[in-house]
Amino acid sequence: MVTNIMFAGVGGQGLILMTRIVSQAAMLDGYDIKSNDVVGLSQRGGMVWGNVRIGEKVFSPNIPPGEGDILVAMEPLEALRWSSNLKEGAVVIQNTKKMYPTLAQQEKAEYPEEDIEELKSKYKVIDINAFEEATNLGKKQVANVMLLGILAQHLDIKLDTWKQVVRDNVPNKALDLNMQAFDFGYHYKL
């Protein structure tokens, strides 16, 4: 069996780090993994996404349409945008901090609040304002690691493995803060 995880966000939110940490943690725990990231639009605050597929034997990083098990969305609109790739009943870990697209900022389009809320009727949505919670810890930049802590609750990877991989991938000067963020997410009540 393969677990299909999708990551979606906007450039600069740490999505590449997230896919790297999940991939390394799964490999260290003995799983085969395949992953990919699409980041070309990130320099202008455009959307970025990545996939990680974990299992005993994985042949491709690409998740077939409608086969996503978990979506980690750094922004609600990105959760909506990528939800069509999910299985019925999939898990959506959603940072509720909104980043309004240009057309919504210019009042030329509505932010799709109702459509985002409707995701809860199809999927198990876990809402958290990760930016606010991370800011309360000391720095909003650890929001992505906080979301990884929540994701870790849904994967069969040892906690010690997660913590080691986080330690190996974050700057030493921000290690304590990242570990606090991961622990906050790992113990976040679903």
UniProtKB/TrEMBL annotation:
Superkingdom, natural source: Bacteria
Protein name (record): Pyruvate ferredoxin/flavodoxin oxidoreductase
Organism: Alkaliphilus oremlandii (strain OhILAs) (Clostridium oremlandii (strain OhILAs))
Domain called Pyruvate/ketoisovalerate oxidoreductase catalytic: residue spans: 11-186
Coiled coil start-end: none
SUPFAM superfamilies the record matches: Pyruvate-ferredoxin oxidoreductase, PFOR, domain III
Keywords tagged on the record: Oxidoreductase, Pyruvate
Molecular functions (GO terms): oxidoreductase activity, acting on the aldehyde or oxo group of donors
InterPro entries in the record: IorB_Oxidoreductase, Pyrv/ketoisovalerate_OxRed_cat, Pyrv_flavodox_OxRed_cen
